[in-house]
Structure formats: structure tokens, C-alpha cells
Amino acid sequence: MSIQDFDNLAAALADRAISRRRALKMAAASVLGAAGLGLAAGEAQAAPTCPRRGAGCERACKNDRGKDCRCIRTVSGNRRCVYPCCTPNSLGRIYCNSTSECGDTEVCVRSLCCGDPGLFAGVCMRRCDASRNFTCSDS
């Protein structure tokens, strides 16, 4: 609520142009609306994103909020932010050929971060947007 809006509201109350009940509803709606905008902005910034160009173990993601996410190319050619963990996935596999072979929170990526996976194989890595409190030592 801006100062001008507040002044208009105060003047209307003084002139009894609107009821106190209506004024309280307007004030509450303003406060709730401002709080909702703040939450929406936080959610929009929450997901880590790849930089404009490049992918690889050294390409850090933007907006990762200290998660140490890396922008890696998936086996299907998309770029995704993942944790650079080189441990077996939730299915006990290290190598994959598609994301369907990985766990629910993982993607199959082409990466040399974990050594050479072979000509056609990929590696399952956990997506950075899958968990807010995850480190590679948790896997």
C-alpha cells in the first residue's frame, strides 16, 4: 500500500465514505497481496539454471544458492543443473543410456566428471532442483 493510498483511505474513513469493515478488508488484502508477491518471487528464483553457453563439470549453475550445482548435458541433448556426484544412483547403477534408467530425482547425463563412461553410456546424477538440502556425501 503506497502513502497516497493510505492517505486516500484515511480521508475516506474521516468522511465516512467507506465503513471501517471495508477499510480493514482493503488493508488486509493489501498485506496479503504483498506477502504473496514476495513468495512468488522467491519461488521463481529458487531453481538453479544453466549459464547461457556451455556445459561440463566446470560450468557452475546460476542461482544455485551455494548448492555447488553444475550444468551438464543430458543424453537427450538438454542441459540440466545437477550435483556432480560420482556415486551409484538409487537403482545401484553408475552408467545409463536414458533418464528412465535413473531414479526419480536423477537424470542421465553425458559427463566426464566421473571418468569416461564409454562412447554411448551416460551417468545418473541427481537434479539440483530435486532437493534443497543435498550434498554429494548424502548419496
What's this model, at a glance?
By secondary structure, this protein is of the alpha+beta class.
Distance between the termini: 47 Å
User: Hey, roughly how much beta strand do the residues contain?
Assistant: 15-25%
Q: Helix and strand string, N-terminal first?
A: HHEEEEE
Percent in helix: 25-40%
Please list the strands of the largest sheet in the order they lie side by side. Answer: 2-1-4-5-3
What spatial form do the alpha-carbon principal axes imply?
elongated
Give the overall average pLDDT: 75
Rg, Cα atoms, Å: 24 Å
Major β-sheet annotation: 5 strands, antiparallel
Tally of strands: 5
Count of all domains: 2
Structural category is alpha+beta
Low-confidence stretches: none
Determine the number of helices (DSSP H or I, runs of at least 4 residues). 2
Question: How does this model look, in words?
Answer:
This protein is of the alpha+beta class and 139 residues long. The chain has 2 domains: 3-46; 70-138, no CATH class. The chain is built from 2 helices and 5 strands, in the order ααβββββ. A 5-stranded antiparallel sheet has the order 2-1-4-5-3, with no helix packed on it. The chain starts with a helix and ends in a 13-residue tail after the last strand.
